[in-house]
Amino acid sequence: MSAQFPNEQTEDGVFDRQDDLFRNWVTDDGRSEYPAEPDRYHLYVSLACPWAHRTIIARKLKGLEDIIGMTVVDPIRDHRGWAFKNGPGHSVDPINGFEFLSEAYTATDPTYQSRVTVPVLWDSQSRLIVNNSEDDIMRMFNQAFNRLTNNQTEFYPKVLRTEIDQLNTIIYEHVNNGVYKAGFASTQGAYENAVAIVFETLGELESRLSNQRYLFGSQIVETDWKLFVTLIRFDAVYHGHFKCNIRRITDYPNIWAYLKDLYQYKGIAETVNFDHIKRHYYITHDDINPTGIVPVGPVQDLVSSHDRERFS
C-alpha cells in the first residue's frame, strides 16, 4: 500500500508527522524581533485543516480579526501543494501575490525541502514566515496582542498550565494525530494499533466529560479547542475516510453534547466549513479515495439543545 507522505512513513507503516520548522515568536515586550503590532502579521490557513482551524478560532475569540489579516487557500491540494485561487470561501493572496504557499516557505528558507503545511504566520515587514506551528500561534494569539485588543480572555491560565500541557499531549498523540495515524497507515497492523488508541482515548474523554462541562471544569481552555477541531471533523471525514469507524461521535452522549456546546459558542460555527473539509479530504487524498467522490452526509444536528449548562 502506498503512503500518503512517504517521507513521513516508518518501515512498519506508521505515519510519523514531520516537525514544524519555523518557531519564532511575536511578543508584546520586545523580547523578540517580532513585536506585537497591528496590520503587520498575516495568517495563511485552510478551512479544511484541523491544525489551521485552531488558529482561526484563537484569532476569532481573541478579537484579532482587525489586527491580523487572514487568507484562505483552496481546499483542493495537488502535488504542488496549497494554492491561492478565487473560489467559495478562498481567494488569491492579497499580501504577496503568491500562487502557492510553498513560495512563502522558499522565501523564508530557499533550501526548504519538507512538506508545506498550514497554518503560516507571515511577517509583512521582514517578508518571512514567523511561525508555522499551530500550538505556538495559538499561544501568541492568546497573550501577545492583549494590549492592542484589551481582550483578556485567557485560554492558557497559569494555574492549569502543567495539567493543560499533559492533556494536550495525550489528545494530540491519541486523537488529533491519532486519526491521521489510522488514516495514513500503510499496513494493517499500524492501522489497527492506531484505531484502538483513538477509541480508547475517546472512551476516557467520555468519562471525563460525564461530570464537568469542559475538559477542565467550567472554564474553556486551549485544550478544548484543540480537541474540538478533530471532533467536528470526525463523523464527516475520519469515521469513513480514515476508517475510524468503531463508533461515531454521536454515539458518545457526553462528547456529542460537549461538541454541540463548543460549536454553539459565540463565533465558532462560522469558523467551520464542511464543504472545504469534505472536499479537501475526499478529493486530495486520492490514494485513499481514488474516485474523488465526496459523500453528501452525514446530517448532523449541531444546534439543538445540549444541556451542558447544568455543570456550570
Q: Keywords, please?
A:
4-stranded mixed sheet, 312 residues, 10 helices, alpha/beta, two-stranded parallel sheet, single chain, globular
Notes on the protein architecture:
By secondary structure, this protein is of the alpha/beta class. It contains ten helices and six strands; from the N terminus they run βββαβαββαααααααα. The strands form two sheets. A four-stranded mixed β-sheet has the order 4-3-5-6, sandwiched between helices. The chain has a two-stranded parallel sheet with strand order 1-2. A hairpin with a 4-residue loop joins strand 5 and strand 6. Helix 1 runs parallel beside helix 3, helix 1 crosses helix 8 and helix 5 runs parallel beside helix 8.
Multimerization status: single chain
User: Shape from CA axes?
Assistant: globular
Number of strands: 6
Tell me about the biggest sheet?
4 strands, mixed
- Helix and strand content put the structural class at alpha/beta
Strand content: 5-15%
Q: What Rg, in angstroms, do the CA atoms define?
A: 19 Å
Q: Could you list the spans in which at least 5 consecutive residues all have pLDDT below 50? A: none
Q: What order do the helices and strands follow? A: EEEHEHEEHHHHHHHH
Number of helices: 10
Report the mean per-residue pLDDT as an integer: 96
Helicity level: 25-40%
Question: Which strand order does the major sheet show?
Answer: 4-3-5-6
How far apart lie the N and C ends?
Answer: 49 Å
